[in-house]
Amino acid sequence: MKVAFIIFEDLTALDFIGVYDAVTRLKTMNFIPELEWEICSFTERVVDGTGLIFTPTKVNESLETYDMVIVPGGFGTRRLVDDSAFIEWLKTSKPCKIKASVCTGSLLYGSAGFLQGKSATTHPGAFENLKKYCTVVNDRIVDEGDVITARGVSSSIDLGLYLCEKLAGHDAKEKIRIQMDYQIN
After folding, report:
1. What 8-state DSSP symbol labels residue 137?
2. For each of the chain's 185 residues, which pLDDT tens digit applies?
3. C-alpha closest to that of 67 among 30, 23, 18, 28
4. CB–CB of 179/38 below 8 Å?
5. Residue of 87, 86, 125, 81 lying closest to 107 (CA atoms)
6. Residue 54 has what pLDDT?
7. CA distance linking residue 72 with residue 150, whole number of Å
8. How many CA atoms lie within 13 A of 120 on its CB side?
9. Apex CA 144: angle with CA 104 and CA 29, to 5°?
């Protein structure tokens, strides 16, 4: 199982870190020991919206060999939806079994054509932006099989745990949730 975590200029750090923390525990807690991941970016320089610097492990390499690609949100998505070079790069993930997003990361999947004929969610402040790509659903997580979208920033942890359950089962998800000390109401 190979996972690509996508990062880009002006991402929201929690969108990336919440899902990253949960999913990588599948390996560190020995539920999926063969799990591998890369931090992938289209550019070498990646700084979030507050100045936090991220270092990609892969730069502008095709995403086609990954089993799962996870895209965070952030204000950078508003520019990237119209960046044809970035969107063409993201389209290389088309053969991946699972494409997941947090917050406005779904706008990038929409721009890449992955949401056509599907339902998806995003941060409520971006529902209008998402409507041009798909049917917008006001749910915390929307699973359309090969595309899974999560709502706003804090839903990153929810998505991470959801993916853990999808990949390794309910017991694994619960053990990871407890280890993270994450409470579900």
Report:
1. -
2. 999 999 999 999 999 999 999 999 999 999 999 999 999 999 998 999 899 999 999 999 999 999 999 999 999 999 999 999 999 999 999 999 999 999 999 999 999 999 999 999 999 999 999 999 999 999 999 999 999 999 998 999 999 999 999 999 999 999 999 999 998 76
3. 23
4. no
5. 81
6. 95
7. 9
8. 34
9. 80
Name the one residue in this structure whose structure tokens are 């390499």.
61
Residue 15 burial class via C-beta count within 10 angstroms: exposed 0-12, middle 13-18, buried 19 and up: buried
pLDDT value at position 184? 76
- For residue 145, report the phi and psi dihedrals to the nearest 5 degrees: 90, -85
Q: Which residues contact 101 (CB under 8 A, 6 or more apart)?
A: 70, 71, 72, 73, 108, 109, 120, 122, 147, 148, 149, 150
17 three-class SS: helix
Sequence-ordered alpha helix ranges (H) in 74-154: 76-80, 84-91, 105-111, 127-130
Under 8 Å between Cβ of 119 and 137:
yes
